[in-house]
Amino acid sequence: MKLNDLVIPDTAACRGALEVAARYHTPSLLNHSVRAYLWAAAYARTHGIAFDAELLYVSAMLHDLGLTAEFDSHTVPFEEAGGHVAWAFCAGAGWSPERRQRALEVIVRHMWDEVPVEDDPEGHLLELSTGMDISGRRTEEIPPGLREEVLARHPRLDIAKEFAACVTEQGERKPSSLAGGFVRSGIAERVARNPLDA
Description:
Oligomer: single chain
Structural class: mainly alpha
Order of helices and strands: HHHHHHHHHH
Radius of gyration: 15 Å
Strand content: under 5%
Largest sheet: none
């Protein structure tokens, strides 16, 4: 499997979401967001999972906005803050209220331990792909040729160090959040051992 085999949607909403991600993310977080979509699309292709490419792409680009200084919330977990930003973005893109809610749900659920594919294929794919990219879970399922091509085009840069610092800070400020639980369960160590950095 090669990068050209994957469905990469090109709609106004997708272009806008990429522009927002590029404006507010560091290069490391931007590349992570792009890789999250690509790992998800590759997994879906390999496993025959039908998904809404535009919804997944927009959600992938915006899923970590709650980690940025501009959109960080001191009252809700970062994935919920990012979900609300996505809802507002999608309203501006002309999406229906139901579709806006789906973007919010996909982003919130990317922090879950598991999202059932039959209930939410896009949430399932984003939860899986962000886990691959951040903690190295199930990276052996990424086709080797695609892995090399994606990492060359969208390198990891400082994502391990940067994400570990972001999630640790979120967990310390919001100990009851999922980020807080991740910190207590040793997310920083898992991030440091990600095979994608080998």
